Amino acid sequence: MSTVVHKPMLATVLGQRQERPPVWIMRQAGRYLPEYRETRKQAKNFLELCYTPELAVEVTLQPLRRFDLDASILFSDILVIPDALGQPVRFETGEGPILDPVDETSIDGLEKGRALDHLAPVLETVRRLRAAIKPEQTLIGFCGAPWTVATYMLGGRGSPDQWVARKFALQHPQAFAKLMDILVETSVDYLAAQFEAGADVVQLFESWALNLDDAAFALQVMEPNRRIVEGLRERIPNAPVIGFPRGAAGNLARYAAYTGVNVLGIDYATPLDFVRSALPNTLPVQGNLDPLRLVVGGEAMTSQVDRILGAFSDRPHIFNLGHGIVPETPIAHVEQLIARVKGR
Ligand code: CP3
């Protein structure tokens, strides 16, 4: 006889409000943990950490050993996709990711056919995690959404305004469309493989959904995200998807409706009353504490945690930060945050 295990996070993704919201922390494995910094030394570089299942499983599990989290997120990076397509990515300390930018001709040289083979170690990590985590914990897979990944592929690095990629999309619409096609197809294959390896849900990180006018938002963000959700569900029926279009602001409601994501990730700059009025209360939301409040702790943190809990108490809500946790975060504050969300 099989017993059905209740996974509060997955249930919330599927639209069931919980008495207390489930909680996980964006970028929960990482440099704020001393044990992460130790394990990191065992790899030559950051991508080797992502491509070594033994180490990637270890760092994924580290936050789960310390904190009462409802979900585990695969340890990898959004930039493994360009790396897998034959555009090598390096991470330099203090600099972030660096790539040799693609242009309108070199886009044709991207090697879609080799991507999944290259990502096989990440899929092995997912399989091992499935076996390692508690049954009531939800396993989250992810990829970067096409526009966000393209900003790095075209710009060669992170930038405050995504100038190079935004200009490229306007100046070279056909080459840009080709790049989006490659990224959509590779992302569908990669996410479907993550489900097959044991992921319960996947998140699309659209971290650079800001700085776009409405036509660019439609073409560069909404359309590719919708194509991923649809393509994925042709392969994995009803595949649960969290969309996180950071900075989407006034475009949030139409992003949710158009793409068909199950859950909308909310960044910390989005007003709570706007979310309440603009989004149907049947739509699950995830977020949205400012990571800086977690750094400072105390009243600066607890007052806003309580406001978020109050604002979303009438809808399915997954508590999270409104962007990634930062390295200077005190571990004690993370413990206090989780206790507060769980009502302890
Ligand atoms: O959440 C998790 O614990 C899973 C792992 C994860 C990482 N990156 C590990 C990582 C996830 C989900 C990501 C997503 C990611 N990566 C995003 C989207 C989320 C967001 O923050 O907007 C983006 C834009 C990236 C690209 C990226 N990776 C940048 C810009 C950097 C450098 C900045 C930095 O924090 O150093 C990375 C490196 C990176 N990815 C680290 C980690 C733990 C730090 C690398 C190190 O250990 O030296």
TrEMBL record:
Highest rank taxon of the organism: Bacteria
EC number: 4.1.1.37
GO molecular function: uroporphyrinogen decarboxylase activity
Catalytic class of the enzyme: lyase
Site (Transition state stabilizer): 77
UniProt binding sites for substrate: 27-31, 77, 152, 207, 323
Family matches, as Pfam families: URO-D
Entry keywords, A to Z: Cytoplasm, Decarboxylase, Lyase, Porphyrin biosynthesis
Gene3D superfamilies: 3.20.20.210
GO cellular component: cytosol
Domain called Uroporphyrinogen decarboxylase (URO-D): residue spans: 22-31
UniProt family annotation: Belongs to the uroporphyrinogen decarboxylase family.
Protein name per UniProt: Uroporphyrinogen decarboxylase
Species of origin: Devosia aurantiaca
Taxonomy of the source species: Bacteria, Pseudomonadati, Pseudomonadota, Alphaproteobacteria, Hyphomicrobiales
Gene: hemE
